[in-house]
Queue: 2 jobs
Job 1
Amino acid sequence: MMADKKAGLKSQEYFINMGPQHPSTHGVLRLLLSLDGEIVKKVEPHLGYIHRSIEKMCEFDSYGQIVHLTDRMDYLASHINNEAVCLAVENALEIEVNERIKTIRTIIAELQRLSSHQLWWGVMGMDLGAITTFLYGFRDREMITDIFEETCGARLTMNYNMPGGLMFDIHPDFQKKVKAFLKHFKKKLPEYDQLLSDNVIFRERTVGVGKLSKEDAISYGVTGPTGRASGFSNDVRKQEAYSAYNKVNFKEILYTEGDCFARYKARIDEMWESMHIIEQLIDNIPEGLYREKMRKVIKLPKGEYYQRVETPRGELGVYIISEGGMSPYRLKFRSPGFSNLSALDHMARGSKIADLVAIMSTIDLVIPDIDR
Amino acid sequence: MVFNIYDFTGLTEWIHEGLSRSLSPGLTLVVEWALIGAGLLTLVALLGLVLIYLERKVSAVIQQRMGPMRVGPWGMTQTVADVLKLLLKEPLMTRNADKFLFNLAPFIVMTASFLALGALPFALGLHIMDLNIGILYITAITSLGVIGILLGGWASNNKFSLIGAIRSGAQIISYELSVSLAILSIVVLTGSLQISEIINTQQNGWWLFKGHIPALIAFVIFLIAGIAELNRGPFDLPEAESELTAGFHTEYSGFKFAFFFLAEFINMFILAGVGAILFLGGWLPLHFGIDNSFNHVMDFIPPIFWFFGKIFALILLMMWFKWTFPRLRIDQLLKLEWKYLLPLNLLNILLMAFIAMQGWYF
C-alpha cells in the first residue's frame, strides 16, 4: 500500500457484469464479478432473467401437461426431465410400466446424455478458444437429433414420455440408426481426445484449475459428472436404479482430482459408458405395449412423492405434494444446475478470468434449468 | 515500355523517367507518391478481401463445413457484402467515451500497418523504400500498433475493453522481444539490416536451410512470438471472445471496427512477409544444388509469385494454428515468453554468433 501511494497509483477492486449477454455464460446468466486486475475475488450469480415460474404453472396443470413444461427446463435433457415426472406419477399411482417402455426410455435417455455431452464438449472447446470443437460436437450430435426426430417428431423438446408410457412406438429403423450412430461415434470419440484432451495448451488450462474437494462437493450438493470428478459417488442410475438401469452393466465414472480436467475426463468417459449401455439394450428391446392402459384423468392420491433421475448435469429431483386433485398442490424441482452453480464462487475464487470461463464450462450450465 | 515480370526495376525507372520528362522534379515526386499510395491502398483492399475469404474457407475446411457459399460463386463476394454492411453501419460510441482517442485508435493501428507494408520488397525492383535499416524499421513500426489498441481499449469506457487493452499491452511488449531477437539471429548471419541485402545473401540458399539448427529455432520462435504479437489465436487474449466478449474492440462498430479487423489481417501479411524475407529467401526461388534443371524450372516462376506464395504458405500455417488450438491464459502466456522463449532465444543468438564467427554456414 505504501509503495502504491508513493508512486501516486491507486489500485482497487472493480466489478464487472459478465452477462446476462455474454458468449460464455451460455444463456442469460448474470455473474457479478469482483476483480482485482485479472484475478477473480468473488463471483455472484444473479438469476431471474429467464424465470418462467414453471413450478407455479405446474400447480394449475394436469400431470400430463406438467411433462411438457419440463422440456423447457434442461432443454438438453428434455427426455430425462420428462422421465422424472413420469416416474414420479407412475410411482404415486403404483403403476409398473412394461419392460419395453423401460428399455426404450433408457436408450433414449442415454442417447440424450450423449448428445448433451457432445454439445458440452464443443462448447467447452469454444470457451477455451478452440472454436473448431464446436462444429465437431454438433456434427455428431446431429445424428442423434435425427434419430429423435424420426422417433417422435421433435429434435430438442421431445415430449416423448408421458405418464404410463411413451407417446409413440419407436420407428422401424430405430435400432438400425442407433447402431449406425454407435459405429460412427466410436470412431469419432477418440478424435475428440486427439483434438482437445491431449493438447498441451488445453492441459495447461484445465489441470489443477478450479479445484473442488469431495467434502465441498457434498456440502454444496454438487452432483453429476461435476461431483463425480471430485470423488463424490452420486450416480442415481446406480444408487436408485430406475427404468432399465438395473439390467445393464456400466461403470460409475469417478475421479478424485476435482479439477477442470477431471470434470472433462469424467464426461468423456461417461460418453463411452453411455454407448456401452445402449449397446447392451439396443438388440433386446422386449415386445409389448408402448403405452400402458391408463385412466384419461390422472389423479394422484393424497401424499408426497419424490423421484430422482440422473440428467447429464446431475441429479434432478421431482417433489410432488398432492391433495388428491388433478394437479399437484405443490411441485418442486431439484435441478442439478442450481446446486452446481452454487459451488462456482468457491471454485473460482483466486483464479483468473480465463479460469472462471473454463470452470463454468466444466460445470456444464444450462441456464433455464437453473432459473425455472 | 520495358515491362519484365522478373525484374521490375525497368518498369519503375520507365515511370520515373516518363514523369520527370513532362513534370518538374517536385511534381514528379508528388505524382509518384500518389501512385504508390494508390498502389498500397489497392494492395490492402485486395489483401483484405483475399485473406478474409481465405480465413473463412480455411476455417470451414478445418471445421468440416462449407463456409460462405451464397454471395457470388462459392461465396467469393461475401467479404464485399460485409464491407458494404460495415460502411453503412451506425458508428456507435459509449457514453463518456473519450471521443478523440476513440476515433484516433483505429487509425493508429491502420497507419502502423500501412507504414510497415511500405518496407516489404514484393519482387526484384518492386519495393517502395529500401532503407539501410529496413528490418529495424519494420519492427519499430509494427510495435506502434499496440498504442492504437491500448488507446482504443482505454477510450471505450468499457471494462472488458480495458482488460483486453491491458492484456494486449503486456502481450505485445513481451513478445516484441522474442520477435526482435529472432530477427537479430538472422541479422547476425547477414551482417546487414537492409532488406534487399538480406535477400541477396540467400541467393545460394535460404537461411532456414543454411543457418543450421539455430536458424530453425529462430524460425519457430519467430512464428510463435509473431503470432502472439498479432493477437491471433492461440494468443488472442486481447480479444478473447469467450472471456471478454471482444476485448479491446468490443465497443467499436462500423468502419472503425473494420479498420481493426483489416489491420489484423494486414499485420498477418506483414509478419508472414518478414518471415519469408528472413528465413525463406524473400522473392528468391527455391534452389537445390547448382545449375540443374530443377533450378531452371523454379527460376521460370516469377519472383512476385514466389514471394506471395511463401507468404500465403506461412499465413495458412497461422490459420491452421488458430483454428485448432485453444487459447492460453494470461499468466501462461507471459510465462512462455519470459521463462522459455526469451532465454532460449538469447542462447540461440549466442550459438548463431558462434556459427557466424566460425563461418560454418554455407
Job 2
Amino acid sequence: MSLFLSAIVLISLAGVPGLFCRREGSGGEGLACLLTLAGVASGLTAVVAALATAKVPGLSLAWSVPGGSFALRLDPLSAVFLLPLFLVVATGSVYGLRYWPQQENPRNGRKLRLFYGLISGAMMLLLTAGNGLLFLMGWEVMALAGYFLITTEDHKEEVRRAGFIYLIATHTGTLALFAMFALIGEVSGSLAFSAAGSLPATLSGAIFLLGLFGFGMKAGLMPLHIWLPGAHAAAPSHASALLSGVMIKTGIYGLVRLTSLFAEIPPWWGWTILSAGIISGIMGVALALAQHDIKRLLAYHSVENIGIIALGLGLALLGRAYHLPELVALGLAGCLLHVANHGLFKSLLFLGAGSVIHAVGTREIDHYGGLLKHQPWTGALFLGGAVAISGLPPFNGFVSEWLIYIGAFQTLKEGVPALRLAVIVVPALALIGGLALACFVKVFGVTFLGEPRSEAAAHAHEAPKSMVAPMVLLLAACAWIGLLPTTLLPLLRGAVAVWSASATTAGADTAMAPLSWVSLSGWLLLTLLTLVTLWLRSRSRMTPREIGTWGCGFQFPSPRIQYTASSFADTLVRLFDFGLWSERHGGAVKGLFPRQTTFASHTPDAVLDRILTPLFKAFAWFFWKVRAAVQNGSLALYLLYVVLTMLALMALLLL
Amino acid sequence: MIGGLFLHLALLLLFAPLLLGIITKTKALFGGRIGAPLLQSYFDLARLWRKGFVFSRTTTWVFLAGPVVGLVVPLLAALLIPFGALPAPVSFEGDLILFVYLFGLSRFFTALAALDTGSSFEGMGAVREVTFSCLAEPTVLFSLLVLARLSDGLSLNTLLGSHLLTAWQSEAGASLSLILVCLFVVLLVENSRIPFDDPNTHLELTMIHEVMVLDHSGPALAMILYGAALKMMVLSALLVKLALPWQTGWWLGDVGLFLAGQIGVAVLIGVIESSMARLRLPRVPQVLIGTSLLSIFALVLVLR
C-alpha cells in the first residue's frame, strides 16, 4: 500500500518541479514525464500485487478530520478502473512531450503539466478511498484540476465559456454528492464506506437519486452531459484523452460503488439507469453524427459509450433486484469491461485526433482529407481505434458489447414477466452500433481518405515517434482485450464479487465461458484477413497508381466534389431531427441558371443550447424584473420592508 | 466435425455464384428473353481473375482492404450458420452476435474503400449503405430475439434447431411468418436488390452497392462479386432454415432440401425484381422502420 501512496504522491507532484524552471526553457518537461512514469510503474506494481493476494490490501490512518479515518483500500473493483487510468496517464504524458512542448507554449505548458499530474493523483485517491470524506476531497481536487486542464488556452473566448459551463455543472453535481454522503452518514452512522450489501433500505431512494444526479453529471449521462462536448473539445488532445477516457468514468465508479453498498436494490433503479443508458446511447451517437469538429464528435461518442456502460449497469441492477446471479455477472462484467475499453480506444482516438490537429492546424473535419498518405501511422492507428469503438470484432469493443448482449438475451429466459421488457437493450444496442459505425466511416473516410480538401492537409506531416508510440501501445491493449478476453476474466470475476457476493456462481462462469470461442474466432478472422491481404498485395504489387479516379465521364474533378462530413451524415441527421433540431441556412437553388449560393448547417447541443440556455435566460430576465420592482431606490418602500420584517418577527415570537 | 466443415464450405464456395445466375435467368424469363447462361457468374469470376488491376492515384491500402474483408467475412459467418439440417461447424452460446457484427465489419471496410477513391459517386454509395444498414440492424436483432425466445439457447444452431417445426404449428407460427417477411426484406437490403437498390442499372445515381465498387478491377472486383454471392447465400440460409425446418435424416436429402430452398429464394428475388420498381431513396428508411415495427409486433406476440 505504501507503494501505491508513493505513486499518488509522485504523479500528483510531477508538474511541480517545472514551476521552478524557466518559462521558455524545456527544463521541467522530461522530469515531469519521468516522475509520472515512475509513479505509474509503482502504482501498477501495487495494483498487480494487490490482485495477486487474496486479501484486499488497505490502509487506515488516524485523521483529525471528523467522519472517520484516512482509509484507502485496493479491491478488484478499484483495480478495474485503475489499470486503464495508469495506461492513459502514462501514454498521455509521453505524448504531451512533443504535442504541447514548453518552448512552443510558454504561457500554459507548466500549468498544463501541473494540473495533469494533480488530476491523475486525485483520481487515484478517489478510486481507492474507503471514506466518504476522503472520496469527496479527491473528487473536488479532480474537478478543479479538470477545470484548469480545460481552460489551458484561456486566452480564447470559447475555451473560457466551456470551462465556465464545466465548473457550474461539476459543482452542481458535487452539491448533490454532499447531500448524498450526508444521508449515507445519517443512515449508517459513519462516513466510512461500509461493507458491500450492508446499508438498509431507509432513505435509499433519495440516496440513489442524489447519487445518480451527482455521478451522472460527471459521467455525462444524457441529459446531464451539457458540459462534456465543449470541455473535451477545448482541452489539449492528451488532456481530452484523460478527461474522456478516465475522468468521466469516476462517475460510473461512484454509481457502481454506491449501489454495491445497499442490501436490497428496488427494480426501478435498474429501469432508471437502463432508460438513461438508452437515451444517452442513441442521442449521443446521433449528435456525434451531426458534428463536424473532430473533438466535439469524439466527445459526443463519450456520451454514447457512457450510455452503453449504463445499459450494462442497468442490467446488473435488475439482476440484483430479481436475484438473478447470471444477469448480474454478465451485466456488470460488460459494464466494467466497457469502462476499460472505452478508456483505451477513446484515448487512442483523441491522441490520433491530436496528431491530425497538430499537422493540419484545425479541428474542422471538412478541412482534412487524404491524410493517410502523409500520416500512415496515425491513420492506421486511428483506423484501429475506429473499428474498436464501433464494437466490431476482433477488437475489444466487441467483447464488452457481447457480454451486455448476452446479458440482455438472458432476460428472455428468466421466469420474471416484468423483466422481459429489458430485451429492448438488444435492438437499442444494435442501433447504437450501426450509427457508431456510420459515424466512424464518416470520420475516418473524410479525414484520412480521398483527396486533401485544404492546402494545410496536402502538406501535413507525420507525428513524431514519441507521439506515435503511445498510440501503438493503446492499440495493442485494445487488440489484447479483443483477442485474449479470457485473460481478464479473473479480474472481472473478482470485481463482480466485490459488487455482489452472490453473483459468483457456477452459472455465471458458464455464461462467460464462450469468450474463449470469441477469442478463437477473432484469431481466425485476423489470420484469414492477413493471408488474403498478403496474397492480394503480392499480386497487385507491380500495378502503378498513376491515373485519376474515374469521374463517370466528368473530366475536371476537384477535391470539392467529395462527400463532406456534413453531407455524409445528412440522411441520418434528418431522420433524428426530432431530437437534434439542426440549423440549416441557405442552399436553395433558384432559376434555370442558378447563381452561386452558400449552405451552412450546424447542430447545437440539444439540451444546453436549446433548453437550458433559453430557460436560464428567462429566469435571469424574471429576476431582473423582480429586483427592479423590489429594490427601486424609494426610501419609503425600504422602510415598509423594515416594518414588515419587524411585524413578522414579532408574530413569530408571539405564536 | 471435419467432414461437416468441408461439406459446409464446399456447398458455399461452389453453389453461391449459381444463385446470381438463377436470379438473372428468372428476370430474363419474365422479360421474355433467353438471358445469360446460368453459369455466367462463374465465367465472369474466371475472366476477372485473370485480369490485372487498375488503381487510382488517390487510393491507399484501405482500397484493397474492402475486397479482402468482403470476402473473408461471409466465409467466417458461414461457419456459424446451419445450412438447412446440416448443423453449423462452429457453434457457441452467443455466436449470433458475432454473426451480426461480422457483417458490420465488412460494411465498415467496403464503405471506407469506396471513400478512398475520393469520388462523389462512391461517397454516395457509402452513405446509403451505412444509412440503410443501420436502420436494418434493429429488425435483425428483434427477429433474433423472437427466435431466441422460442428456443432454449443462444447459438444459431439452437436458434434454428429442430424445434422450429413444432413452433410453426403452435401459436408462435404467426410470429415466425412475420419475422420471415422481415428477414426477407433485410436480405434484399443487405444484398442490394430491387426495390432497395438496382444491381443492373448503369446510372450511378441510383445505385448503392454497385456504385461503391465502381473503381475496383481485376481480381479485387472478382473478390467483391464472389463475396457478395457468398453473403447472399449465407443470409438466405437463415431464411431457408426458417421456412423449411424439415429434416430428412439422410445427409444427401438434407443437402438437396437446402439447395432447393436456396434456389427458391433466388427465384423469389428474381420475381420481385421483375415485378417491382426501385423505391425512391427517401422511401427506403420508411420501409425499414416499417419492418422494424413488424418485428417488434412479432416479438410482442411471443413475449405475451
